[in-house]
Design brief:
Number of helices: 4
CATH topology: Methylamine Dehydrogenase, Chain H
Distance between the termini: 45 Å
Helix content: under 10%
Structural class: mainly beta
Mean pLDDT: 88
Shape: globular
CATH superfamily: YVTN repeat-like/Quinoprotein amine dehydrogenase
């Protein structure tokens, strides 16, 4: 019995250590906010030979984001097909990979491969060629890690790489055949998957067995590539998702719609909504659109719950809310608006890689000077595709805002009410594309490209 007690105590301690140590268990960390809850100092400057603790060659490309569970980093990628636009290869050889990496050493602990379910979307056009076939970020409850690979289904593994279950959530395609990218999230015993392309549905699976608990289908999920969040008001938890023209609040136990609000006038929703202090924020649309909506309610809450709306322009990156300010990045400009009313705080032109910062006309007295971390502009894109698009969302840690561009430049700003650019850093001098949002844990940034996973730390 004493041996059993010791074993149980060790297991319990390891589980508590894992859950306490990790703080980045899903896309954009805590509830998709992009804001680190840790107080560890994070680096401001880095380059190929500065503050890079390690770098790891990956077996394939991808734009999914890393997640951190204890001292493990998980990241997905794909191989075998679709790495060169001129010569995509044999579609039947497409594989997805889940890689588990030791966060301290950068060594691979284990990796698994998943065969593709055919027919897959071909590597053509302007969608799949831009982001590839590994665009969904994994999610973990500290005991298991869950991946979504589109038509190839949802897969669950324990932290040692043992396969637990797999489940299909559809094998369809969106009308444009742009692929899919929405990441799964967890709520209590449910793994919730946005299968917008695969079956125009939201699906909840039992996280232990993979059994389907509920499924809600609607054409309103067409052209959705964002990831849901969870909100709580009046003791009730809502599952919230940005869709074309509207925000939806659903019952996470059934998937049924509780409320909706008119949001942004766009026929597609590529980013994710964020919540702060009981208010939802979204910035989306090629022609521009921003909105703030109070959470909760019943039925159409457009008039009663809309706080403000504006014309701010976003595309793929999700907004970031820190201390009552909303930060977003578009067309080479860092923008900050007030969360309370959407009014402008500042706009600041970001330097191109290797260049210098232009003056901030909104704040001419600003004296912050950028430090270029070294290296040359990455001219990535997946094998001659459409170049390095800015898919990553901004994250916040240690009083700083980090914005990773597709060419590998990370702009670091001071979180505040004026434009203060601390540094503009390059990780590599090689040609790589960076599409995943960085993960933050224990004072480190984990950044993935189409070729490598990096750990940035002082």
């Amino acid at each position: 019995m004493s041996g059993l007690r010791i074993s149980l105590a060790v297991a319990f301690s390891m589980a508590m250590f894992s859950l306490g140590y990790a703080d980045w268990l899903r896309f954009r960390g805590p509830n998709g906010s992009g804001v680190s809850q840790q107080t560890d100092a994070t680096p401001s400057q880095w380059g190929p030979d500065q503050n890079v603790a390690w770098k790891l060659d990956l077996p394939g490309a991808g734009v999914s984001s890393p997640v951190v569970v204890g001292n493990r980093v998980f990241v997905t990628c794909y191989s075998g097909y679709g790495l060169d636009r001129e010569n995509p290869g044999d579609l039947s050889k497409l594989k997805r990979h889940l890689i588990c990496v030791d966060a301290t050493t950068g060594k691979i602990d284990w990796q698994v491969a998943v065969d593709s379910t055919q027919p897959e979307d071909p590597y053509s056009g302007i969608g799949v060629t831009a982001h590839g076939y590994a665009s969904h970020t994994p999610v973990s409850d500290g005991e298991r890690v869950y991946t979504f690979f589109g038509k190839s289904g949802v897969h669950a593994f324990d932290l040692e790489g043992n396969r637990l279950w797999q489940q299909s959530v559809g094998a369809g395609s969106d009308d444009r055949r742009w692929g899919s990218s929405s990441s799964p999230i967890l709520h209590e015993n449910r793994l919730i998957v946005t299968a917008s392309a695969e079956s125009r549905s939201l699906v909840a699976l039992d996280k232990t067995t993979g059994k389907q608990l509920w499924k809600q289908e609607t054409d309103g999920l067409s052209n959705v590539w964002g990831t849901p969040i969870l909100t709580t008001t009046d003791g009730r938890t809502d599952l919230v998702l940005g869709v074309p023209y509207e925000f939806w609040g659903m019952n996470p136990e059934t998937g049924k719609l509780r409320w909706f609000a008119q949001a942004i006038d766009s026929d597609q929703y590529s980013s994710s909504v964020v919540e702060a202090d009981g208010v939802l924020y979204g910035i989306e649309g090629r022609s521009g659109g921003s909105v703030a909506v109070r959470v909760g309610g019943k039925g159409d809450v457009s008039e009663s719950h809309t706080v403000w709306s504006g014309n701010d322009t976003g595309r793929f990156g999700s907004p970031l809310v820190v201390n009552g300010r909303i930060y977003y990045f578009s067309n080479g400009v860092a923008n900050c608006i007030r969360a309370e009313d959407g009014s402008s705080v500042f706009k600041g032109r970001l330097p191109s890689a290797g260049g210098s910062r232009q003056s901030d006309r909104a704040n001419p007295g600003n004296t912050g000077r950028p430090v270029i971390g070294g290296g040359t502009r990455g001219r990535g894109g997946f094998g001659g595709g459409f170049g390095a698009m800015d898919y990553a969302s901004a994250v916040a840690a240690d009083g700083k805002i980090y914005f990773l561009k597709g060419d590998g430049t990370t702009h670091v700003l001071k979180a505040g009410d004026k434009f203060e650019l601390i540094a503009s850093n390059q990780l590599t001098e090689s040609s790589e594309s960076f599409g995943g949002t960085p993960a933050v844990s224990d004072g480190r940034l984990f950044i993935r490209s189409d070729k490598r996973l990096y750990c940035v730390s002082e």
